Amino acid sequence: HKQPCIVCVRSCPAQTPQRKMGAETVVVQGVAPVVAKEAVKSQTRDRSRSPRAVAQSETDAKLTQDSVLDLDLFDGHSAEDIFRSPDGRSGYTYDDLICLPGHIAFGVHDVTLDANFTRKINLKTPIVSSPMDTVTEHKMAIAMALNGGIGVIHTNLSLEAQVKEVTNVKRYKNGFILDPVCITPTTTLAELDDLRRKCGFTGFPVTEDGNMGSKLMGLVTKRDTDFLDNRSSTSVGSIMKKIGDLTVADECIELAAANMIIREKKLGKLPIVTKGGRLVALVARTDISKQAEFPLATKDKNGSLMVAAAIGTRLADRDRARALVAAGVDAIIVDSSQGDSTFQHDIVRWMKAEFPDLQVIGGNVVTMRQAKHLIDCGVDALRVGMGIGSICTTQEVCACGRAQASAVYSIAKLARAHGVPILADGGISSPGHIVKALCLGAGAAMCGSLLAGTEETPGEYFYSDTGVRLKRYRGMGSIDAMKKGSDDRYFGSGSTMKVAQGVSGSVQDKGSVHRYLPYLIQGIKHGMQDIGAKSIAELRQQLHAGELRFELRSPAAQREGGVHGLHSFERKLFA
Known about the structure:
Layout (H helix, E strand, L loop, with lengths): L5 H6 L6 E4 L2 E4 L5 H14 L4 H22 L6 H5 L13 E3 L15 E2 L5 E2 L3 E3 L8 H9 L3 E4 L5 H12 L18 H11 L4 E4 L8 E5 L1 H4 L15 E2 L6 E2 L4 H11 L3 E5 L5 E6 L23 E4 L4 H12 L3 E4 L7 H13 L4 E7 L2 H10 L3 E4 L9 H5 L5 H14 L4 E4 L5 H9 L4 E4 L14 E2 L5 E6 L4 H5 L20 E5 L4 H19 L4 H10 L4 E3 L2 H6 L15
Parallel strand pairs: 6-7, 6-19, 7-14, 11-12, 14-15, 15-16, 16-17, 17-18, 18-19
Antiparallel strand pairs: 1-2, 3-23, 4-5, 8-9, 9-10, 12-13, 20-21, 21-22
Helix pairs in contact: 2-3, 5-6, 6-10, 12-14, 15-17
């Protein structure tokens, strides 16, 4: 380097730039302004006193002083200094770190969040929903993909049920209801009244066996059932509007054309059927005003939403992988709490040989050796994190794991050299934690508890004794989840005694993901603007150049950085 280099001075002592000062060599690294000044004086005395030499000497002195001052203004530490210091003996979490602000030369609307989920799958939003049975099924996966992220369907399902969840995502078209509640012709009006109170709407398609995909028989609405007596004995089939009197549309119809039919014929609902008369979707008039375009949507080359799914490491999971690939899944995650096992190595190699175009994600890992073993097996991304989720007790029960910030930085550094993105899985409870994960090299953040409690998660809402609206949330290592099959994730499927590595609990209602994700996205953008990075790629460049600066926070600093000093307060996340 011809000029003192901030990166090398801070991160690469072996390459510290030096300047010849007369008979001495003055090292720029760590030089105080006073020492530098004396060196400049010495240099000036030793040189010729000609006017040209004096002018050159003064210029060199000013450059040296400016470089030293720049170093003095460069606060904090690089990630390399913090995580790879030979004196380091501690593991750090997200809360242990704070990112120092940079220079803002752009608006928050200029920040882009393009990220890598795998080698070949890119996201517009660096958020992935976790493969947990209280977080991700098709409704969550659809919402995530529409907003630029991606969802991972959990494996605590039968093979057929998991394939159906994937199919529901791949077949989704914005504005079409693909899973309407159907009833049979023999349903009584009393039963229909109960269903209306439970569902909150009044019109239902009537099919041959009461299931979606069977032959459409008719449609029943509120006007068909008003003012009728004998509700316990009157069947829907006797009063419904029959198929011959209904307006229906072919399954190939576009949403705009379906909406036009609803407007022109003043329909409440438009059934979408196959040529054989089987119900495949429904379009409702009440949804027309709610329909919106999703410019960030994660789609494949055919225009379908992208979705991932999780499998285990048993031999039977190879059949599951085949079925998921046949259903159109875009990526498969091998779901294991400890990913560096011969079982996972074997199934990763098998999938990459059997399905070369399939994106395979390995994990979970927290050390570079674990990561290197899976990279050698051919994974397209790595899932990083062990024992740090809000519902996980692996570190407590098994005394094994790693602080998440340390794990993310270490694995990201190794994976980058091999072109493999990483997913920071766990320990995330705010948009700020996602920003920190990205600052440490993660391609995207995988979230469980952050998304739990939203409308799109599986399960029903219930109320606490104080009237708070809640939803169930549990770890895949909890006894409840293990009983449904997730014990394979912890290598315990053949054990007579199941040892819990997670808990079951509840979380407060967060509303719809379609409102919650924009809040998270905007929070991430504001964080990146404060840091001075317009994109995740630029953030990554600053990290590797040592320009992205961090400080470690004391417990008092962490308290100071949160809400404090109030008698009481109300937290509203967004408006």
